[in-house]
Specification:
single chain; about 400 residues; alpha+beta; Butyryl-Coa Dehydrogenase, subunit A, domain 1; Butyryl-CoA Dehydrogenase, subunit A, domain 3; 8-stranded mixed beta sheet; 10 helices; about 15% strand; globular; acyl-CoA dehydrogenase activity; Acyl-CoA_dehydrogenase; FAD; Acyl-CoA dehydrogenase, short-chain specific; Acyl-CoA_Oxase/DH_mid-dom_sf
Length: about 400
């Protein structure tokens, strides 16, 4: 497929049809709704606003589109999902994270379906797929980020259940979630971790306000467990599978974050070209100056390289191949390349690009954050070297 900033997928009619419908929804419905209600990436989100997006996206067939048909999805592959995720952030929509179900929705539960019992599917997962409930994933702790085995949250067997004690941080979607997938260390065990489905209104479970990241998005919360009792039926998978569930999901998430970063860089490119065409400097449009043309060229080249890597890796994932090394390569390169593109966008916009509230400034902050989120640059390099040598 020849490179264009706004790709066409003529060789894949199903994907092309989805992309066209998604662009139409974003342009004609979601973006006007956000403008009407003054919703920006930094607006505190309430459940009613999010449910409106969930339900409408489900009506249009986007919510959980990557899930198999028996779970209410269309069974699209990872490569197709990456194309849709890029379109979302390229649109500039503040609520783009809720259209496919990234934030508390089906994309959060899709990776754990295979571990769930039939009862857990019906009680917890299917309501999420239908847009009736939301979930968050809680693995990280203050002193257990990249080194998750340092976690101190414990699960103690007690009669016909388990008692959780500890604190989880940086749980995306926690402020509006109904339940969490919590990974905890089994009490008295040195290296045994398990996963549990925990209703957030359970006695002993408290949702705390999380830190606001540099992107300004208010979508994270902390979970405090104080003698929080969880029934045995809420054990997800088997005892000892907690890290497999948690880290296995993270590996795929590292790949699936990448198209969102590419879309944001693409949005920064679009804004930069528009600005450079209309800004007059020394009697000529800014875009007429070679220095600006070089920046535009560099940005497009970074986007092309990142998209090519991500697409190739997604195709490999669709074949069922191991992508642990490639997923880390994609997240490493994409996060760095897209941030460089955002940095160029700020430079092109000059003082306007430094102004708080300007879209380019917000993209810059968001993309800087993703050089750390879901694995730092250094952690990815460690993982790549370990996987290769």
């Amino acid at each position: 497929m020849p490179f264009t900033l706004e790709p066409s997928y003529d060789e894949n009619p199903r994907l092309q049809e989805l992309v066209v419908r998604l662009r139409t929804y974003l342009r004609d419905e979601l973006l006007p709704y956000e403008r009407e209600h003054g919703i920006t990436p930094e607006t505190p989100l309430d459940r009613a606003t999010l449910e409106r997006v969930w339900k409408r996206s489900a009506e249009l067939g986007f919510y959980g589109v990557s899930l198999p048909p028996e779970l209410g999805g269309q069974g699209i592959g990872f490569a197709e999902l990456c194309a849709l995720k890029e379109e979302l952030t390229a649109s500039g929509a503040a609520l783009s994270h809720s259209v496919l179900g990234d934030m508390g929705g089906p994309l959060r539960v899709g990776a754990i379906v295979k571990y769930a019992t039939e009862e857990q599917r019906e009680r917890y997962l299917m309501p999420v797929v239908r847009g009736e409930r939301a979930c968050c994933f809680s693995l990280t702790e203050e002193d257990a980020g990249s080194d998750v085995r340092r976690m101190t949250t414990t699960a103690t067997p007690d009669g016909d259940g388990y008692v959780l004690n500890g604190k989880k941080v940086f749980s995306s979607a926690a402020p509006f979630a109904d339940f969490a997938v919590v990974v905890a260390r089994m009490a008295g065990e040195e290296d045994t971790y398990s996963a549990f489905l925990v209703d957030l209104d359970t006695p002993g479970c408290t949702v705390l306000d999380g830190e606001v990241p540099m992107s300004g998005q208010q979508m994270e919360g902390d979970l405090l467990f104080e003698s929080c009792r969880v029934p045995a039926a809420n054990l997800l998978g088997e005892i000892g599978q907690g890290l497999r569930i948690g880290i296995g999901r993270i590996t795929l998430n590292r790949l699936l974050h990448c198209p969102s970063l590419i879309g944001a860089a693409r949005r920064a490119w679009d804004l930069s070209v528009e600005y450079a065409m209309n800004r007059v400097v020394f009697g000529r449009p800014l875009l007429a100056h070679q220095a600006i043309q070089h920046k535009i060229a560099d940005m497009a080249t970074e986007i092309y390289a990142a998209r090519s890597m991500v697409t190739a890796t997604a195709v490999k994932a669709d074949r069922g191949d191991d992508i642990s090394v490639e997923a880390n390569m994609c997240k490493l390169f994409t996060s760095e390349a897209c941030f460089r593109a955002a940095d160029q966008a700020v430079q092109i916009h000059g003082k306007a690009g430094l102004t708080r509230g300007h879209e380019v400034e917000q993209i810059f902050r968001s993309l800087r954050m993703f050089r750390i989120v879901t694995g730092t640059t250094e952690i990815h390099k460690n993982a790549i070297a370990k996987g290769l040598v």
